[in-house]
């Protein structure tokens, strides 16, 4: 199991060091600094073995988090834990920065004591932790410390921390029961210069913000092909008529927050759960079929002699004309020996950024079924470099107000039998946002 | 470290925020005194502030142990916040102040009885972290109480505390009976208590490999599976990792566990998913392959594995390393998922390199075009390592997918033209392998390669180039000059290059003896007299003696046809792979090394193994499959590559008369592999793609195999510089048979590649019946049965005429002879080479594939004697471009003897003419598919070189027929 956990700043100074196992000595702290943080070469692996000691590290801005062990630990678990650790810290004091870590070091130690016992990760849900961690995160304002608890409260805490629903405490009350669902998708594309799709997939997340009283039982439904087909066959139940047919989408795979009953999903493919309070990620999914690619990029690169390049890029938006895409950015890489660039674009603004070796073309908004174009002349310095320019792909960023996978939320039902509010009383909001992931066209 | 604290202090003094960073400011000399005073202050707040300052100093590495008594005095407080701080201090300094730590015991004991469960748990958690013997004694009673506490939070903490105590004093834990209490907690009503108890027991069990601690039986398994649905994500990992150690009794139990584990594949936590994959991969072995559920399970595994690739890069890396193993074990799972492994421009380099590896493993005829296009793209990227690997991958594709070989070669040539130094070198290394795989096909590119001779500065590339020059010396006009140029700096070259140069020059000498005598003498003396490298010296002496005693034999040895290299390179040795599959998700699977290679002490030394599916084999499996230590069953089923290397060096000069019976797996052999691993420990993270023992040059473990009988050389053996060794090894056997020539049995399927099943065999034609004669040798530890055989479509439609008759199961270390009559009426597909035969053999364990080549004379019919007139007419009739001429060298038979010998193989002499002391034999033969081959064999008395002209309407067969002539005449 994890033998120790260290947090360093970018210079390699230790901000936090917590050793859980006797086989990890203080010199391990230095070994990581010397061999990884101060290493001359770029880091070639997130797992490093130094003198029979294994170091796992992740970086958040310029902070290094390293877990150390001498045993054959579950490597996936260690990384998951490190990410979780980051989440918990962010939930307590915001951004992970040197200053915030120093400001909250006592809190971090207390957290580390609680969520890692002898190197075994324990309950690390922020919702539960906040009930009994005595230190408060310092974000700016000072929060009052919890008053001493009664005996009932104490046993409630422990049963929650160890219980089946470790992510939610009892007795939550809201005047207004409300929930927000965000379907956030990132659409990824790799296209050949000829316009052939080399690979495309959507990775999506359903993020839920719930402000619900009590211990509500929720059921989430979407236009999952398997479910819809099943209902279609049965020819029964409520809304088959409306939403069956081509509206459904094939989901390659999905994963769920630990609140979702996985065995029920496995057997009936229904998504039921008691949600944590506040914001959390309900599910992640991936689709590869029938993806709506919001933009098509058509590149044309011509080498005119040894010292000049002509680039023309056309982008076409491919969605309903009534919808607007935002924050569009096209990045056209230029060779390292570029000496000057002249750009003309029909829409938006384009600039050559020498420091990034790219022409960056920005368009604020663009409606569907439109087309725009940029052309550039790139002057090159003559070089003796035999190696050809690698021609990195043209990448694109954008945001669209629909889900490129075609996913639709069909319902989110809330049941709370003990309290007197019903599904109809809950105010529900749904929002779809499609963003570009790695959206590249080779040129 | 102090600097930032000071700086912050200044910044802070003017700020209004009260934050923890101010505690880092105490740097003045008298601070210890000040702190002491503050710690003893009456005011609670002041005390707390002081302790925080102490902890801050502790973090930055300052020694504040002098404050021990003062801090401990603060311990007795009902303020939970202060208590936690004091405990933190205690954990750090108790070990250095054991005597004073005793002072804290009373408070601990008292806290363990506190009304607040949080305080009870805190006390028991902290006590376990205080590694002072005197204190542990006091710990026992409170721990016993806490293990039975009414509050689950306390119980789950106490469970882990048992593991802590065990780490300090194992005997104490056993004596106190804590292990039994811990076992009882597996049945606890609270899932988190169960999970922690499982984690603690698993850890303790690891250091007692033989104990029956984790007594996994169907009842406990059931409890674990129930808890699995209810506990935290981490708990699920503990439970799944523990489940993976269980061996189900039968396939039904196996299936029911799998069914209950599969829902975990949808968990958001990648570690839960990987641990579930581990359980499924392991238990799948038990399921019969024809079961519907088996197929369903296979299908269910792919999507979650792909989903892992959208996790954060570090996790992707772990996932990819594991997928690499999974793909080797069960390629069918991800065979349609090639695209997800395409490299993204912004992937971190470690992700890129791993993806590339998996792409090659998944490359097949179906997707090769896409893969090649991608690889070509990658070869122009920036990162040198990545580009190299991409170039190498192109070569591996050529070797793996025959249809793509030509395109790969032309892509490689394009890359060579870029003149980027490392690309050229890498390309030459892989082209050498391509030559090995497809001899006599792409030699036209040699000229281009020679142009780049100068730019090669890496040993591997130099060695590869030298090998090419030596191998094709007869086609390179200035081969001697080229090799001579390398010879100048012989002693500065690496061993790899030296060895290769030695072999190449000997080859050159044998091919062009007249011009190169001086050169060969020079290299032999350089190697034997001026070198102190034992490998080089030994090889030099072997050649020297060989050349001086019997040049003909030398030729046979050195220029013998080399075994083809296998399609898959860089495969992990099967036993290791099985072990690593049992470690999916862990560090072992990331390093691709067994835990014993990087874990100290007793932990992780046991080897885990997959339990294979039901059937007769099971009885041989170790009887105590219930425990975690499935491993005692000797794992030395198959000697690892390292040993084979050892054996090779041990080869003496007497050539084996026929391929002798391969050695039974000697129990000591396993050691070789272990040593190798040991040697490379400190550079664990080095080049892992290199197969174990790939470095013949200076490996310290070379001696490991000495004294063992020479092992049969598996065709898959593909060490970078194996050229010369292969030459030596492929002695071709000399089984003399009159009448029909029967090639000696060769190993077709090495045990290494077929889970212990070794097949060697040959082809025989007896009175018109073709037979495949095989020796099946069981080198595994389990009984093999239910054999069946099938052929792929081949050039002449060879097919089994009946089922494979193996009536009795083969027990371990037993071998059995089997003869399979063949017919020639099967489906036809042209093979390359023409006489290649791809065979699938199935047994109760798995299906294995190998390919072998049959002598084409098997297909010569007994009625292949043509009428004289017909012969003449036919000879004229066949167009001249269908005629091919070959030289048969070093044949010392006279024409009559040759004719007799050939007749035994159904090559009939129709007429003989003697012109100017030269005998001309006119011969004919008829293939089973009705093709006639006509031959003119010219034999000149006193000249050992024959000339043969072949005419046939299907000129493709000529090469094969010629080879057949050569083998028949020389044996």
Q: Determine the structural class of chain A based on helices, strands and strand pairing.
A: alpha+beta
**Lateral arrangement of strands in the main beta sheet of chain A:** 11-13-9-8-23-21-16-19-18
Instruction: Specify the structural class of chain B.
Output: alpha+beta
Q: What Rg of chain A, in angstroms, do the CA atoms define? A: 26 Å
The largest sheet of chain B, given as strand count, sense and whether it forms a barrel, is: 5 strands, antiparallel
Describe the structure.
The complex is a heterodimer of chains A (443) and B (971). Chain A has 443 residues and is α+β, with helices and mostly antiparallel strands. Chain A contains 9 helices and 23 strands. Chain A has a 9-stranded mixed β-sheet, with no helix packed on it. In chain A, strands 2-1-5-4-3 form a 5-stranded antiparallel β-sheet, sandwiched between helices. With 971 residues, chain B is an alpha+beta fold. In chain B, α21 packs parallel to α23, α23 packs across α25 and α26 packs antiparallel against α27. The chains are: A alpha+beta (443), B alpha+beta (971). At the A-B interface, β2, β3, β4, α2 and α3 of A face α3, α5, α7, α9 and α12 of B.
Q: Could you give a quick summary of the protein structure above?
A:
The complex is a heterodimer of chains A (443) and B (971). Chain A has 443 residues and is an alpha+beta fold.
Q: Characteristics of this structure?
A:
heterodimer; A: 443 residues; nine-stranded mixed β-sheet; B: 971 residues; alpha+beta; five-stranded antiparallel β-sheet; 13 strands; elongated; disordered N terminus
Write the layout of secondary structure elements.
The complex is a heterodimer of chains A (443) and B (971).
Chain A lengths: L3 E5 L5 E6 L7 H11 L9 E4 L2 E8 L2 E7 L5 H19 L4 H6 L1 H11 E2 L2 E2 L4 H4 L21 H12 L15 E14 L5 E15 L5 E6 L2 H10 L5 H4 L9 E4 L5 H7 L2 E3 L4 E10 L7 E10 L3 E10 L6 E10 L4 E8 L3 E5 L4 E10 L3 E10 L13 E7 L8 E7 L11 E15 L2
Parallel strand pairs in A: 8-23
Antiparallel strand pairs in A: 1-2, 1-5, 3-4, 4-5, 6-7, 8-9, 9-13, 10-12, 10-22, 11-13, 14-15, 15-20, 16-19, 16-21, 17-20, 18-19, 21-23
Chain B lengths: L1 H13 L16 H9 L4 H16 L8 H6 L6 H14 L4 H14 L5 H13 L3 H15 L4 H17 L1 H6 L2 H8 L5 H17 L10 H11 L4 H11 L7 H11 L8 H15 L7 H16 L5 H17 L19 H14 L5 H11 L5 H17 L4 H13 L3 H17 L8 H6 L7 H13 L7 H9 L7 H17 L5 H12 L5 H16 L1 H8 L15 H8 L5 H5 L49 H9 L20 H10 L43 H7 L16 E4 L7 E10 L2 E10 L9 E4 L7 E2 L14 E9 L12 E7 L4 E7 L14 H10 L5 E6 L6 H10 L3 E8 L2 E9 L5 E9 L5 E7 L4 H14 L1
Antiparallel strand pairs in B: 1-2, 2-3, 3-6, 4-7, 5-6, 7-8, 9-13, 10-11, 11-12, 12-13
Helix pairs in contact in B: 2-3, 3-5, 5-7, 6-7, 6-8, 7-8, 7-9, 8-9, 9-12, 11-12, 12-13, 12-14, 13-14, 14-16, 15-16, 16-17, 18-19, 18-31, 19-21, 20-21, 21-22, 21-23, 22-23, 23-25, 25-27, 26-27, 27-28, 27-29, 27-30, 28-29, 29-30
């Amino acid at each position: 199991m994890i033998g120790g956990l260290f947090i360093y700043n970018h210079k390699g100074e230790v901000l936090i060091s917590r050793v859980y196992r006797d086989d990890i000595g203080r010199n391990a702290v230095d070994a990581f600094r010397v061999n990884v943080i101060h290493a001359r070469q770029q880091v070639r692996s997130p797992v490093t073995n130094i003198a029979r000691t294994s170091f796992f590290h992740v970086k958040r801005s310029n902070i290094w988090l390293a877990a150390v062990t001498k045993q054959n630990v579950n490597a996936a678990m260690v990384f998951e834990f490190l990410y979780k650790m980051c989440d918990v810290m962010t939930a307590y004091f915001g951004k992970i920065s040197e200053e915030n870590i120093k400001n909250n070091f006592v809190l971090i130690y207390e957290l580390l004591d609680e969520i890692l016992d002898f190197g075994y990760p324990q309950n690390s849900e922020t919702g539960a932790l906040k009930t009994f961690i005595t230190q408060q995160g310092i974000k700016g304002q000072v929060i009052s410390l919890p008053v001493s608890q009664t005996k009932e409260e104490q046993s409630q805490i422990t049963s929650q921390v160890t219980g089946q629903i470790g992510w939610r405490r009892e007795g939550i009350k809201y005047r207004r029961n409300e929930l927000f669902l965000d379907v956030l998708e990132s659409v990824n594309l790799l296209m050949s210069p000829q316009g052939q799709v080399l690979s495309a997939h959507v990775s999506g997340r359903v993020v839920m913000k719930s402000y619900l009283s009590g211990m509500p039982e929720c059921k989430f439904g979407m236009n999952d092909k398997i479910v819809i087909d099943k209902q279609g066959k049965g020819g029964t139940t409520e809304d088959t008529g409306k939403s069956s047919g081509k509206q459904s989408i094939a989901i390659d795979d999905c994963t769920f927050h630990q609140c979702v009953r996985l065995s029920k999903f496995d057997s009936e493919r229904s998504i039921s759960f008691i949600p944590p309070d506040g914001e959390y990620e309900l599910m992640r999914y991936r689709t590869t079929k029938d993806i709506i690619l919001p933009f098509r990029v058509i590149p044309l690169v011509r080498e005119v002699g040894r010292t000049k390049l002509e680039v023309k890029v056309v982008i076409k938006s491919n969605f309903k004309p009534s919808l607007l895409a935002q924050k569009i950015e096209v990045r056209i890489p230029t060779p390292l020996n570029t000496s000057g660039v002249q750009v003309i674009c029909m829409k938006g603004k384009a600039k050559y950024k020498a420091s990034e070796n790219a022409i960056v073309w920005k368009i604020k908004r663009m409606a569907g079924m439109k087309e725009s174009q940029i052309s550039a002349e790139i002057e090159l310095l003559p070089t003796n470099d035999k190696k050809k320019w690698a021609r990195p792909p043209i990448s694109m960023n954008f945001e669209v107000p629909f889900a490129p996978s075609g996913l639709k939320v069909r319902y989110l039902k809330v049941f709370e039998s003990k309290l007197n509010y019903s599904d109809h009383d809950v105010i529900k909001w749904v929002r779809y946002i499609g963003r570009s992931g790695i959206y590249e066209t080779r040129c | 470290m102090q600097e930032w604290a000071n700086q912050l202090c200044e910044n802070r003094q003017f700020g209004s925020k009260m934050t923890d960073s101010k505690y880092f400011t105490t740097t003045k000399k008298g601070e210890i005194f000040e702190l002491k005073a503050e710690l003893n202050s009456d005011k609670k707040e002041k005390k707390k502030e002081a302790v925080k300052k102490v902890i801050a100093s502790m973090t930055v590495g300052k020694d504040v142990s002098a404050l021990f008594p003062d801090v401990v005095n603060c311990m007795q407080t009902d303020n939970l916040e202060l208590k936690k701080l004091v405990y933190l201090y205690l954990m750090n300094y108790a070990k250095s102040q054991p005597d004073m730590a005793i002072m804290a015991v009373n408070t601990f004991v008292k806290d363990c009885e506190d009304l607040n469960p949080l305080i009870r748990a805190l006390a028991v958690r902290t006590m376990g972290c205080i590694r002072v013997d005197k204190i542990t004694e006091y710990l026992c009673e409170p721990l016993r109480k806490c293990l039975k506490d009414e509050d689950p939070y306390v119980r789950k903490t106490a469970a882990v505390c048992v593991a802590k105590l065990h780490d300090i004093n194992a005997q104490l834990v056993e004596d106190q009976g804590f292990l039994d209490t811990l076992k009882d907690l597996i049945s606890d009503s609270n899932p988190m208590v169960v999970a922690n108890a499982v984690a603690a027991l698993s850890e303790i069990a690891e250091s007692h490999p033989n104990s029956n601690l984790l007594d996994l039986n169907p009842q406990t398994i059931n409890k674990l599976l129930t808890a699995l649905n209810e506990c935290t994500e981490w708990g699920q990992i503990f439970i799944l990792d523990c489940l993976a150690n269980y061996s189900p009794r039968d396939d039904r139990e196996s299936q029911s566990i799998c069914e209950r584990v599969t829902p975990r594949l949808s968990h958001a936590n990648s570690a839960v998913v990987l641990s579930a994959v581990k359980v499924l991969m392991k238990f799948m072995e038990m399921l019969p392959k024809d079961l519907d559920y088996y197929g369903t399970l296979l299908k269910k595994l792919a999507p979650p594995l792909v989903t892992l690739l959208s996790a954060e890069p570090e996790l992707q890396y772990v996932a990819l390393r594991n997928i690499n193993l999974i793909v080797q074990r069960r390629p069918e799972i991800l065979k349609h998922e090639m695209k997800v492994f395409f490299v993204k421009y912004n992937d971190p380099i470690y992700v890129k390199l791993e993806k590339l590896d998996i792409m090659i493993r998944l490359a097949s005829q179906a997707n090769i075009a896409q893969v090649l296009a991608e690889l070509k793209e990658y070869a122009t990227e920036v990162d040198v390592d990545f580009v190299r690997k991409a170039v190498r991958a192109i070569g591996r594709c050529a070797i793996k997918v025959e249809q793509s070989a030509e395109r790969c070669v032309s892509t490689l040539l394009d890359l060579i033209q870029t003149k980027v130094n490392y690309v050229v070198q890498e390309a030459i290394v892989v082209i050498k392998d391509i030559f090995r795989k497809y001899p006599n096909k792409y030699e036209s590119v040699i000229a281009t390669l020679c142009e780049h001779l100068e730019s090669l500065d890496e040993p591997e590339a130099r060695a590869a180039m030298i090998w090419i020059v030596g191998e094709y010396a007869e086609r390179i006009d200035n081969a001697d000059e080229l090799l001579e140029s390398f010879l100048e700096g012989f002693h500065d070259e690496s061993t790899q290059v030296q060895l290769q140069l030695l072999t190449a020059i000997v080859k050159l000498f044998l091919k062009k003896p007249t011009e190169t005598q001086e050169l060969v003498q020079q290299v032999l003396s350089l190697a034997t007299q001026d070198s102190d490298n034992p490998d080089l010296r030994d090889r030099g002496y072997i050649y020297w003696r060989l050349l001086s005693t019997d040049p003909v034999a030398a030729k046979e040895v050195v220029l013998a046809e080399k075994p083809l290299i296998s399609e898959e390179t860089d495969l992990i040795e099967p036993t290791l792979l099985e072990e690593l599959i049992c470690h999916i998700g862990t560090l072992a699977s990331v390093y691709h090394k067994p835990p014993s290679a990087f874990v100290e002490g007793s932990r992780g030394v046991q080897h885990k193994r997959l339990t294979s599916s039901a059937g007769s084999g099971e009885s041989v499996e170790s009887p105590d499959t219930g425990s975690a230590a499935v491993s005692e069953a000797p794992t030395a089923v198959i000697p690892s590559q390292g040993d084979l290397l050892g054996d090779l060096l041990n080869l003496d000069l007497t050539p084996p008369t026929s391929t002798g019976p391969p050695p039974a797996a000697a129990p000591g052999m396993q050691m070789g592999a272990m040593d190798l691993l040991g040697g490379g420990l400190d550079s664990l993270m080095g080049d892992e793609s290199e197969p174990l023992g790939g470095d013949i040059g200076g490996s310290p473990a070379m001696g490991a195999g000495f004294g063992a009988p020479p092992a049969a050389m598996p065709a898959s053996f593909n060490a970078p510089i194996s050229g010369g060794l292969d030459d030596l090894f492929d002695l071709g056997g000399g089984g003399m048979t009159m009448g029909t020539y029967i090639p000696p049995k060769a190993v077709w399927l090495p045990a290494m590649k077929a889970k212990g099943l070794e097949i060697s065999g040959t082809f025989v034609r007896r009175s018109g019946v073709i037979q495949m004669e095989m020796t099946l040798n069981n080198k595994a530890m389990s009984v093999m049965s239910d054999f069946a055989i099938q052929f792929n479509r081949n050039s002449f439609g060879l097919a089994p005429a009946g089922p494979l008759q193996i009536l009795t199961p083969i027990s371990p270390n037993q071998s059995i002879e089997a003869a399979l009559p063949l017919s020639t009426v099967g489906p036809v597909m042209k093979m390359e080479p023409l006489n290649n035969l791809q065979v699938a053999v199935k047994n109760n364990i798995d299906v294995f594939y190998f390919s072998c080549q049959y002598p084409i004379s098997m297909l010569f019919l007994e009625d292949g004697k043509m009428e004289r007139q017909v012969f003449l007419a036919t000879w004229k009739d066949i167009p001249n471009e269908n005629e091919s001429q070959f030289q048969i060298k070093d044949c010392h038979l006279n024409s009559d003897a040759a004719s007799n010998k050939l007749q035994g193989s159904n090559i009939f002499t129709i007429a003989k003419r003697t012109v100017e002391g030269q005998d001309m034999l006119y011969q004919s033969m008829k293939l089973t598919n009705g093709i006639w081959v006509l031959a003119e064999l010219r034999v000149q008395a006193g000249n050992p070189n024959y000339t043969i002209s072949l005419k046939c309407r299907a000129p493709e067969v000529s090469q094969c027929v010629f080879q057949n002539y050569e083998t028949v005449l020389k044996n």
